[in-house]
Protein: EKC/KEOPS complex subunit BUD32
Organism: Aspergillus avenaceus
Amino acid sequence: MTYTPPPLPPPYTNTSPPPTLLTQGAEAHLYKTSYLTPTTPAALKIRPSKPYRHPILDKRLTRQRILQEARCLVKLVREGVSVPAVLALDYEGQSENNNGGAWLLMEWIEGLVVRVVFERWEAFMKCSGELGGKELEREEKKVRGLMRGIGGVVGGLHRAGVIHGDLTTSNLMLRGLSSGEGEGSPGMEGDVVLIDFGLASQSISEEDRAVDLYVLERAFGSTHPRAEKFFEHVLEGYQGSYKGAHITLKRLQDVRMRGRKRSMIG
Ligand SMILES: Nc1ncnc2c1ncn2[C@@H]1O[C@H](COP(=O)(O)OP(=O)(O)OP(=O)(O)O)[C@@H](O)[C@H]1O
Ligand SMILES: [Mg+2]
């Protein structure tokens, strides 16, 4: 069965070139489109309305999510945290006979999501068998650098008073990498950019911050077993990123303990 995404909201019904669909999550559809000039790329995130929800409730929830996301992004750009800038939004889903829902237009980040970078790296490590000491050291050094970069960005986010709520390697991008380079060991230079603030909230509680880190740690463990042992370098990058970071790291120990107990009980 081929999937037909819901119709685009105006003005995207007649932009040229037409937006191209990149991903469709349970909640949102992501398109690549352009902004002001045809050669300025932009990312369009649409939250389609959900026909099975009561229309008034649906509208309120959709509006709340998209506004929350936009507010966090605007605040973070202002604070100098590496996230896409907000270009435009329609939080009401104003469009007539609209089932396109509400949308958010953002700066386009040219690069790859960290999940893909690690998938390529793991494939490279697997097929290159036993790497020699020097080569292995070079590979591991790259990974450590990326991990520290991730920690630094998450620390900047927390310093700004925002909790991401869904830190996974799909919600972190590495700017400047091209999808073309398929073989060999992937590059890991470039700025880490945080995306997807659909579940973000404003908080400075160390419990919330620690849980944010714990979610990321678990995500690494389950999606990138080979990279997991480098997670300590995320924490190393996080450590120096704001004044209270060491308190959050201490709290992370408690969160881990609770997580372990919970999984023992089942
Ligand atoms: N600003 C951007 N620039 C380039 N690509 C982007 C941008 N934002 C998102 N993407 C791409 O689209 C994918 C999905 O985006 P995002 O994570 O925001 O949506 P989602 O996971 O479906 O949303 P949600 O979890 O809020 O329902 C990302 O993994 C990334 O590959
Ligand atoms: Mg996402």
